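Bumping with the actual sequence this time:
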Amino acid sequence: MESKESFINFNIIVLILIFLFSDEGQVFAFGSNFYGCLGSENCDDEVSSPCRIETFLRLPVQEVACGDNHVVALTKMGSVYTWGCGEFGKSKGFK
């Protein structure tokens, strides 16, 4: 009896993102910048030390949440910003 094997091709992408906050609400990030998830055009694809996210220099951040390929930030003034993968309705760039 001949065995038939079938395989499904897929890629597993593990993104490791780390966000740090200062007391003043400035945001620093490091890890994988895949899909632009670190939120800074000044960062390389892989960042091993904290990189400041310039967008939030004058917009103090209260909280950040990370999804599979996107990030959401809540400022202390109540505005919401998203960035990362734009697939499936997620945002590309800051909104």
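The tokens above came from a reply further down the thread. The CA atoms of residues 42 and 51 lie 8 Å apart.
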